[in-house]
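Purpose: get a first structural picture of the assembly so the mutagenesis plan has something to point at.
Setup: two entries, given in the order below. No constraints added.
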Amino acid sequence: MRSVAVVGASLAGLAAARALRAQGYDGRITLIGDEPRAPYDRPPLSKDFLLGRTSAEELALGTEDDEPLDLDWRLGTAATGLDPRGRRITLADGGEVRADGVVLATGARARPLPGAGGAGTGPASDTASGAGGTAGVHTLRTLDDALALREALGAGGPLVVVGAGFIGAEVASTALACGVDVTVVEALPVPLAGPLGPEMGAVCAGLHTDHGVPLLCGTPVRRLLGDARVEGVELADGTVLPAAAVLVGIGSLPNTEWLAGSGLDATADLRGGVPTDGRGATALPGVVAVGDCAAAYQPDTGGHVRTEHWTDALRQPETAVRALLAGADAQDAQDAPGARGPLPYFWSEQYGVRLQFAGTRRDGDTVRVEAGDPEDRSFLAVYERDGSPTAVLGMDQPKQFTRWRRQLAARWAAVAT
Amino acid sequence: MEHSETLTLEDTVLVACRIEDLPPGESVRVEAGEGTDAVAVFNADGELYAIDDTCTHQDASLADGWLEDCKVECPLHAACFDLRTGMPSGPPAKRPVRTHRVTVEDGVVRVHVAAPVGAY
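Result (C-alpha cells, whole complex):
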C-alpha cells in the first residue's frame, strides 16, 4: 500500500493518521477535512470553551509530535464522492485524491429541528451552524457554532434548549453558569432514556431541577416563533416559551451522503452510518470507517451500532488501520477473534457533576445501584442482562467507575467479533 | 494550609497520610492549599510516587485513576502518565505532569512540592 486517504480531519481522522505511522506505514497520507481548521477537540465546546475558560488554541489536537507524521493536508474542502474503482475521492474544490487505502472518518453533524428552516437534508458539506432561516437558532457541533452560541449567551437570555440529551444538558448547565435564564424542553417523557434507560434517565433529569432549570418533558416543539430572528418556542400543547436564543440538541446525522454511488450504499442505508465489522472494515476492500460516521458490528447486541463516542473516535482507528494494512476485508472478520475496537465509553459534565458510562445497554437490561445513592447525585449503577453486567454508569464516582469499566473491557475483549 | 510547612522559599512539604493508609495499589489526593496544585501520591508495589493530581488534558483527578506498574491512567480519558517522569505515554494528554519527591519518616508520608513554576 503506497497511499492512504483519510477523509475527515477531526479526532478519528487524526488518530487514523497517527495509527498508520505507528504501525509502520511509510507511504503517502492525505488528510481531507471540510473545515478549514486543523483538528480540534469538540467536547469542551459545550463546556469550558462555551464558558470562555478554554481558548481555541487549547482545543488543538495536534502536537509537535505529529510533525514527523508527514501528512498531506487538504483542509477546507469536503469530499463529494468516492469512486470505488481506483478508490478515487472527488473534492468540493474540484480536485481529486487517488489512494490505495481509504479511511472514512467524516463524522456527523447536528440534526436540525424538523420544519424549523434548518439546513438538514443537504449533503455533508452543509455547515451544521443551525438554522438557514432564523437568526438566534443554534446547533452545536463546530468551533464556529460554539463561538456563535457563546456570543448569544453573552447577550443574555432567555435561552430555550430543545432536547435534553447530553449536548442540551451541558449547554443548559453552561448557560446557567453564565447567568442566563434557561429552559429545557424534551419531546420524550424521560430524557436520556435511550442511552441510559428510563430509571437513570430520570435521575439525570433531576440535575436540571436541582439547579432550578425548568425541564418540560413529553411535549414536542410545534414551531419556532419569529421571522428574521427567533422570539420564542411554541410547544405541541400550545405553551409558548419566550426565547432570545434557541439551542437545538436533538442528536446527529452521520456525514455519509457523499458516499452515494460508492457501492457502500448498495447494501446498506447509510443514514445509520457506514456499517463495518468489529474492526472497522467496510464492505469495500481497502476501505475502513471509524468514528461518528461508522456503525460497527457488536456481537453483544447483534447489530451495527453508531456509537458517536469521543473515545471510540480516538481508539477505533488503531484496530481499523491494522485491518486496512493487513488487506483484510469484512468477510475475514468472523475469523478474527478479539480484534475489535474498544468498549464503548462516554462521559458528560453537567452542573458540576461528572457522568461516566461504559458498555452496551439494551432495552430490557435491569439496572441496580451498586454504590452511593442517586439522591445524593453520587452513585454507581450496573446494568445487567441474564445475570451478567452489560454496562456501568457512574455519577461522580470516578474510582469505582474505572474498576467496573476495566472489568467490562476485559469481558468485551474476550468476545470474538 | 494546616497540613503544610514551608522549608525554604522553593519547597512546600505536604503531609500526605500515614504509610499504613497507603497500601500497594492505592493512591491519595493531597490538597496543597491556595496557589499550589493538589498532588497525588501512589503506592506502586511498595514504591511511593507523587505527581500533580490534575490531568494535563482535562480537569480530572489522577488519584482517581487506574494504577498499573509505574503508570497511572486518567479516569476520564485514559491518558497515561509515567509516575517516575510525569511524561504522558501518548494522546490525549500533550503535556507532562510535574513529579515530586516523597519521603517517609516515622510512618508519615510527606511530599516535597517544588515551587509552582506555571511554565507548562
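Strands of chain B lie at 4-6, 12-18, 27-30, 39-44, 47-52, 66-68, 71-73, 80-82, 99-105, 108-113.
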